[in-house]
Design goal:
It is a single chain. By secondary structure, the chain is of the alpha+beta class. Strand 6 and strand 7 form a beta hairpin. The longest helix has 32 residues. The protein starts with a helix and ends in a 7-residue tail after the last helix. The protein binds copper (II) ion.
Length: 267
């Protein structure tokens, strides 16, 4: 019984995505609704058409099979109409949305208070890790040969730029609200997928590649990161947490993390 309850709870969650928490999310949700509305119209329309034909060409009225069948062009017109709506959704909504929300990255002006915050994200069986450049704004040196399960970013601890780097290994990390965030996604083992349902972000994490994605959190809170790509026997446990906090809270956390020394613990 409780399984059935969970099934319907999950079904409900699929129908209604978790609350949107990013500036880009609203337009993405709207597009998803438009597509589902079209699918609903098609679902009802084609079933109604099917039932109509079953009735219209019933055996009692048509005892002899007719190899010509329907003479009207209704189905062709309906197909053309559906295709036209699909083209409208694609060219009118999806392509412009992709250009705006995905392709167009926030611009860097040189102002440390408003510039996008960059975070390296490393997927690892079975956790998410984050790496920030630290208050000096300089990334510590990273080397492939330094990379290990305990040092997923391959940070070279002896490098002076690495001293204040902030790393969050298998632990929650923070971002300030209303600030552009750029995540550079990679993986140190197999293909994972960095998914922030509340931010409407999904980006594959591929070993040997670093793929940027961006979002602007608009509500404070704690949000789950999940892995959206089957990546091994504990895939379902591959959760992370991103905390959206006030700018002041972020600065305090960031300074404390930097002081603790992101890279120095790897010696
Ligand atoms: Cu994974």
């Amino acid at each position: 019984m409780s399984n059935l309850w969970h099934f319907f709870q999950n079904l409900w969650q699929y129908l209604f995505p978790p609350p949107n928490a990013s500036a880009q999310g609203k337009a993405i949700d709207e597009l998803i609704w438009y597509i589902h509305l079209l699918m609903l119209v098609l679902f009802i329309g084609w079933i109604a058409y099917f039932l109509y034909t079953v009735y219209r060409f019933r055996k009692s009225k048509n005892p002899k099979a007719d190899h010509v069948g329907a003479r009207s062009h209704f189905s062709s017109y309906a197909e053309i109409g559906v295709a036209a709506i699909e083209v409208l959704l694609l060219l009118g909504f999806a392509v412009p949305l992709w250009a705006k929300a995905v392709d167009q990255f926030p611009i860097r002006t040189g102002d440390p208070k408003t510039d996008p915050i960059e975070i390296q994200i490393m997927g690892q069986q079975f956790a998410w890790n984050a790496h920030y450049a630290g208050p000096d704004g300089k990334w510590g040196k990273q080397e492939l040969k330094a990379a290990a399960p305990g040092n997923p970013f391959g940070l070279v601890a002896s490098d002076p730029d690495a001293k204040d780097d902030v790393t969050c290994l298998r632990e929650p990390f923070q971002v300030p609200v209303n600030r552009n965030i750029i995540c550079r996604i990679s993986s140190m083992d197999v293909i994972h997928s960095f998914k922030l349902p509340n931010m409407r972000i999904t980006q594959d994490a591929i070993p040997g590649m670093t793929i940027p994605t961006h979002f602007t959190p608009i509500s404070k809170g704690s949000f789950m990161i999940i892995c959206a790509q089957l990546c091994g026997n504990l895939h379902s446990t591959m959760k992370g947490e991103i905390k959206v906090v006030s700018p002041e809270e972020f600065e305090t956390w960031y300074a404390a993390k930097a002081k603790a020394g992101g890279a120095s613990s790897y010696e």
